[in-house]
Each structure stands twice: as C-alpha cells, then as structure tokens.
Amino acid sequence: MNESPRAERVDDITANRICGPIRFEVYGAASPPGWGRWVESVSGDGPAMVWLGHATADGDHGLLVGTAPRALFDHLEHPMQLDPVRSAALAAGDRLMNVIGSVDRSDLPPMKDLGEAVRNRIKKRVIDLSSWDRTSWIVSGAPVTAAVWHFAGAWIGIAEEVAGSHLVCMGVNFASDKPELATVAGTDYGVDFAAGLTIRDLQQSKAGLAMPEPNRRELRIDLQALQQ
Fold first, then answer.
1. Is 7 part of any domain?
2. 217 has pLDDT over 80
3. CA triple 129-93-39, angle to 5 deg
4. Domain of 159?
5. What pTM was estimated for this model as a whole?
6. How far apart are CA 25 and CA 41, in angstroms?
7. Which domain of life, per UniProt (predicted)?
8. Is residue 167 part of a domain?
9. CA separation (Å) from 156 to 24, 112, 132, 149, 178?
C-alpha cells in the first residue's frame, strides 16, 4: 500500500541534511559498558560544534561532550561579543539550561517563571570564567586542566589545552573531575560523520536517550535562591 502524502512529507523532512561532512576530530566519553550513546546536536553546516551524549540506562547519570574546532568556531559571530572561549562555555550553559529547566511537581513554580533569572545567572558566570574551579580531565590518555562550574544539580566545564578545539562538557550525577575523553568514530554513536548528518540520523541516534533532569522532582537550592 502506498504511503500517504503526509507520511511522505514527514519522511522528506527527516531526510533533510543538517550539516555537511564532519572533518575534524570529535571527542566523546569513555563511558562504562551499558551506557547509551547518541549525537545530541550539531551547530552550523560546517559544523562548528558537535555534541555527543552519554547516559546510563536508568537515566540517572549523564555526560554531554561538545567539540568546537577553533578553525571554524572562532570565526563565528559570538553572542554578547564574547571571546571564543567564553562563547564555547556559554554553549555548554545552553545545554545546562535545557536539563535543569524541567520541573514535574504541582507545588513548585513553572520553570518559565525562573527562566530569565537562570539565563542571566549562567551568562554572568560565563563572563566570570576565570573564577571557576579548576580540575583535571583525562583527554587522549593525558591530564588537561578544565574550568568547571556547578549549578542546580549539574555542572559545565571547558578545557583549553586540547589541540585544535575547545572541549566542553556538561554533567549530571557525573563527577566533574572524572571525564575521560578521546576522539571517537561516528559509528560509535550510530552515524557516519564523513557523510554529514540528517534529522533522521539524529532521531535514530537518540532513540529515546536523554540527559537526566536534576530538578524534575526537587527544586535545587540554587534555583530556590533565584525565586527570592
């Protein structure tokens, strides 16, 4: 039986390419066996940033790893006239905003009422990147220094000692001094980096996988403070 025109249109949309071939080294996490892996997102046709997700099957622990190649990312028009390092950190802040923003209790205020305050808090802390805590990550077998900031049950961090790229992470119930990162192949995440990516590729890669949402049932004290 022939598919309906609506089904064909949906199929056409998911086949749309969202980025060209990824020609730079992309970093992912050495997650333990049993963790799900997926491509979270890509930015730009280049693309100028690739985010890879890693989470436990029960959805309680997760780590996003973002790779922003300097040769592409540094030449973008960055928000708020930020330098490329802080702009990469702000991209991690956007990911943070996504996971801390879900509240699933009727006695708590909707996150939309806190959204602007949270967004401003993230921007302010990104501008003040030099004051973030310092820790160590393992990248390609060697320790590198990373700047990290904890907020509302999650954290974001950035490492600037990786040749050719800004390396950023966002973690939930994953210690900020524990990332072990290395270059990865697209096939580890169910895609072909060399072929470019489509909407369908991302949908199939994620297949129901997602980062934990630390404020879904309990509003962390960081967010409570912003209600004052």
1. no
2. no
3. 130
4. 25-32+48-184
5. 0.89
6. 16
7. Bacteria
8. yes
9. 23, 21, 10, 6, 13
